[in-house]
């Protein structure tokens, strides 16, 4: 289907207040949309379901499901015209928010120094007027700006509307082969990928790698750890380690081990989570949760021998799951976008620098809003 026809179909779905999701995987032009046929709020029971999941940060709350069987699947192509427009995002004075966030970071550092935990990710939200843009124009501007991210627009009338462009995979599985990543440490991209990383950033990223490897090693068949690389996500650079291997356990157990990783919560997980829930003065809801496709089946018919087409056709069925961490995202209510941003805090954190990091992260969504 043509991109504009897909948007028209999704607008209709939105006006009828029916759930849908539309997304594009990193470095692809293909768009996938699932349009639910009713407005039931389905939730995941044990991750054996098929469909598109939308999970909150707090795993005690329910994970929403758009079931594959209860929705229409539409595929389209988004060809970026390659007219990436750079907009300067001016940052107005946010003195109150700044002092409040710096106070929160200081509390986090104190808790680390007193031995409560090793790392905590602390976040805040910011509201921005989306001016006269429709949600679909906004989605297109996010698509245009972030070709290497997982870009999505998700809507459920009983939950809300979210848009994001995340650089972080939580878990990808193809049959029993898995891949995940430890993504942490941030600096602004200034035209050069060959940058030097401070000890604080290296340590905060290593904590994520160790957590994933320790947790998964107990339950997977095999695991291998890649090198630490610098990767670009919008205007930011991060440190990333790819972790791959073979699973033997069910998906639910693996997701329980991973989510929330110390890239969005902290270490040890429970202590950091308690701190986040108690001290951040707002509810994260779906920010730093995860989203993506669950157990989708892709069957391909192939020919063993091109010369004897009739007798040799065989089908291979792949089951794939592709889950991403919900970062660089916003929730839209009427003409207001709430942008969510956070950063990893360790004993070496400088509160002023951590504040500036969240200001830089907020620009990812603001750039698309102001385009
Ligand atoms: C928690 C966020 O980013 C995570 C992912 C990459 C780098 C991060 C950091 O440097 O703190 C965070 O761990 C966010 O963007 O809100």
TrEMBL record:
It comes from the Bacteria. Residues 98-361 form the Chorismate-utilising enzyme C-terminal domain. InterPro entries: ADC_synthase, Chorismate_C. Pfam families: Chorismate_bind. This is Chorismate-binding protein. It comes from Gaetbulibacter jejuensis.
């Amino acid at each position: 289907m043509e991109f504009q026809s897909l948007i028209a179909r999704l607008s209709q779905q939105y006006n009828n207040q029916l759930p849908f999701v539309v997304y594009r995987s990193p470095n692809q032009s293909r768009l996938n949309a699932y349009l639910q046929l009713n407005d039931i709020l389905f939730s995941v029971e044990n991750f054996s379901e098929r469909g598109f999941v939308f999970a909150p940060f707090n795993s005690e709350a329910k994970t929403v499901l758009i079931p594959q069987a209860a929705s229409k699947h539409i595929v389209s192509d988004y060809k970026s015209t390659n007219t990436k427009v750079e907009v300067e995002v001016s940052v107005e004075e946010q003195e109150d928010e700044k002092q409040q966030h710096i106070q929160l970071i200081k509390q986090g550092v104190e808790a680390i120094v007193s031995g409560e935990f090793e790392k905590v990710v602390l976040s805040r939200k910011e509201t921005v007027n989306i001016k006269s843009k429709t949600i679909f124009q906004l989605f297109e501007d996010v698509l245009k700006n972030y070709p290497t991210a997982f870009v999505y627009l998700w809507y459920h009338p009983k939950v809300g509307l979210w848009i994001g462009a995340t650089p972080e995979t939580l878990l990808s599985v193809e049959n029993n082969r898995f891949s995940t990543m430890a993504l942490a440490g941030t600096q602004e991209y200034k035209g050069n990928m060959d940058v030097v990383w401070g000890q604080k950033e290296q340590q905060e990223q290593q904590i994520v790698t160790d957590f994933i490897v320790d947790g998964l090693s107990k339950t997977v068949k095999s695991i291998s750890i890649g090198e630490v690389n610098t990767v670009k996500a919008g205007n930011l650079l991060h440190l990333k380690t790819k972790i791959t291997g073979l699973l033997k356990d069910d998906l639910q157990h693996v997701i329980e081990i991973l989510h929330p990783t110390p890239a969005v919560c902290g270490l040890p997980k429970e202590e950091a989570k308690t701190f986040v829930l108690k001290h951040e003065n707002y509810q994260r809801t779906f920010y730093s949760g995860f989203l993506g496709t669950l157990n989708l089946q892709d069957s391909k018919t192939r020919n063993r021998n091109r010369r004897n087409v009739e007798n040799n056709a065989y089908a291979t069925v792949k089951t794939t799951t592709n889950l991403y961490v919900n970062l660089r995202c916003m929730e839209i209510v009427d003409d207001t976008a709430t942008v969510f941003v956070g950063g990893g805090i360790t004993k070496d954190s400088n509160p002023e620098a951590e504040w500036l990091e969240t200001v830089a992260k907020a620009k990812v969504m603001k750039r698309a809003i102001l385009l």
